Structures are given as structure tokens and as C-alpha cells.
Amino acid sequence: MRFFKLLLLIAGLTAVSAFAQGPPPSFSPSQLDELVARIALYPDPLVAQILAGASYSEQIAAAAKWSDQHHYLKGKALADAIQEDQLPWDPSVQALLPFPSVMGMMASDMRWTTGLGNAFLAQQQDVMSAIQRERRKARSFGYLRDNGQIIVGDGPYLTIIPVNPEILSVPYYDPRIVFFPPRPGIVAENAIHFGFGISIGGFFRPWGWGNSRVDWPGRTVFINNARWQRNWGNRREYAHPFVNVHRYGPGDRVPDRHELFERSERERNDEREGRRAPEEHHGGEDHGLDGGHDHR
Description:
Blueprint: H1 2-14, H2 29-36, H3 44-54, H4 60-69, H5 75-84, H6 91-94, H7 100-108, H8 110-122, H9 124-140, E1 150-153, E2 159-162, E3 167-168, E4 171-172, H10 175-178, E5 193-194, E6 198-199, E7 213-215, E8 220-223, E9 226-227, H11 257-280
Antiparallel strand pairs: 1-2, 3-6, 4-5, 7-8, 8-9
């Protein structure tokens, strides 16, 4: 029932543009717990970048498509493509492009992504607290522990740091399992799996990788070594400081390689259709306004 109410709340927020006028959203602690559950056990640098990127939720779908189209690019080749294609999205969204699975998850459930982004804009400290609550649950039930990919720091705040700071592995887990006590006789292991490590070394430093983290005591996020200060009140005009990442508008960017490929394919198809058209016209028949082409 609580989850159903959360979906209704997020659906209502999604219906309104992220830049529309109106009061900020208000999530209860239990709603925030459910909202952050999908990413609470991600490494801290990835959590920071996802929260920042989700605050530009209206850009996620297009960026996820680009990420999927370029999934074969890695390292320097991917970083070069991001720069060369003069992408129009905020650098915080571009920072997620090396992670097609993350982009796909966010794009496949825009209600959740919009809700997460709005919560981060309006209740940043509450979101941080919710992530800590969920981590405590997974830790106490035996699911969250050190392994070959992450180091779990215990203390006043639970940190999740990659073993290799230049390699990030995305964890896969079921929130319906890892945040609840295991059934009697069930050993709490292998509930969290990790995908292949993704290199976020020097090539991706312009997008904040290597210099992004969560300040848990201060319950805030640092991107590119600068405090993320975009919030519900200044979301229209605030621009986070990124180094060497230009924000291209619709009028000053060039089409990326997939756009050029799709355009050339359409042009070739149009040419082929144009060459066939005379053969398809017989006896001066009236084929309608479209010149005789049946597009059904």
C-alpha cells in the first residue's frame, strides 16, 4: 500500500514539468526510503552522479538512447565521442553515459527518475538520510559487505567505496530482499551481484569522475570537487561548475554520428522511393495527395 501511494505521488509530480511553478514536492521518510532503495547500495561516487543527473530528468530518455547506441565505445573512444557529438544535455547527465545499464534503468521508469530528481532538488539532506537508513538495513541483515569490488566503511555513516577508484561496478539486487531480514535458515549471501567494471579514469574527469563523492556528515553531494547547490528554488538558473565540458544549445551543436547515419538512410530511402515512383503510376490513376505511395 505504501509503495502504491508513492507511485501515485510520483505520477502526480511527473505530470508537472520539472521547471513549472509551484511548491516543492514533499516526501515522507518512508516514501524516501522506497524511492532511494534502487540505488542505496551503489558505490558513493555513482550515487552522487545519479542524484545530480536525475535532477535533469527531462533529459534522461534522449541521453539513454545515445548511451545505448554507443555502448560499444569504451574509455577514451567514448569520452571523445561525447565531446565530438556536442551533446545538448547537462554535464551531470553526460556523466552517466558510460553506464548504459544505469541509463536504461532510469529511462525505463521515468516516474521513479523524476521523483528521485525532484526529491533531491527539494529534500537533499532527507534523501541522504534515507540512503543511510537503507544501507543500515542491508548491513544488519548481512547482505551489504566487503567484496572484490567495494569496501564498506562502518562508522557513524556507512560508505561504499570502489576497491579501485578508477573502476566502477554496478551492483544488481532486489530491494524486496536486501532490505528485509532473511527467512529462518536462509544465509544472506549472493543477493548482491556486480556487473563488469567500467573504467572512469582520467578520460572522464571533465565530467567529475574521480572528484565526485558524498559528504555523509554534511548530507550533501560534491561533483567535480564542488558542492552541488542546485535545488528546487534555483533549478532554473543554477549551473554547476564543470571543467572543459561545454553546454551546447540546440542552435550551436552538430548532429551526432547516429543522427547523420539515420538522416543519410532516410535520404537514400527517399531516393529509392523517388526512382520507383514512376513505375508505380499506371494510366494516370489518381493516387491521392501523397503521389501514389501507400504508407499503410
